[in-house]
Design brief:
This protein has a domain of 118 residues. The chain is 74% helix and 0% strand. Helix 1 crosses helix 2. The longest helix is centred in the first third of the chain and has 58 residues. The N and C termini lie far apart (115 Å).
């Protein structure tokens, strides 16, 4: 048996630069394009995960903010017996309050309605869980049936903008509480 040279890749006549090298550069371009496509896909997947994680974090923060804002007026009542007494009178007979007590009461109610507004817009944006909205909205709509809140709303509704104002006005109209 004689030694036979076997050529794995025939490079005879191969051209890397100049006429006839187009096949090589097309192949190199294809490899680079494929690599770029893979890199872009991986980067988009990483960004998608980051966006998902950031969205979860923002929803969590919105949930916390809503709870904090909604609970602050409750904390005030627990910590201030005088305010609690004023609010008990305001719930049923707001006209019995002195101007100073009514100012204090209406400032407290502003905080509550501001919280309701925050819940409303966060719910519309999908930033808080539906279950949190349902509970908070039921609580605030219950307040709309009390005479003190009806008086407050008749005096202060211009402080709120649409569509929240119409939403709350509709709730007060349903309960038709005397001002």
């Amino acid at each position: 048996m004689e030694d036979v040279d076997v050529t794995f890749i025939n490079t005879d006549g191969m051209v890397f630069i100049g006429p006839g090298s187009e096949w090589l550069w097309a192949a190199v371009t294809g490899l680079i394009l494929a690599g770029t496509g893979i890199a872009i896909y991986r980067q988009l997947r990483v960004q998608q995960r980051q966006i998902h994680d950031n969205t979860k974090l923002l929803r969590s923060q919105a949930h916390y903010n809503a709870l904090l804002l909604g609970n602050r007026p409750v904390e005030m009542l627990v910590g201030d017996g005088g305010l609690a007494s004023i609010m008990n009178v305001a719930f049923s007979t707001p006209e019995a309050l002195s101007p100073d007590d009514w100012l204090r009461c209406s400032s407290y109610m502003t905080m509550q309605v501001d919280a309701w507004e925050y819940f409303y817009y966060q719910h519309r944006d999908g930033s808080i869980p539906k279950e949190l909205w349902v509970g908070a909205d039921n609580f605030f709509r219950d307040l709309a049936g009390r005479p003190g809140y009806a008086r407050f709303w008749s005096e202060s509704q211009a402080s709120f903008d649409e569509p929240f104002r119409s939403y709350v006005a509709e709730e007060f109209a349903k309960r038709s509480a005397p001002a």
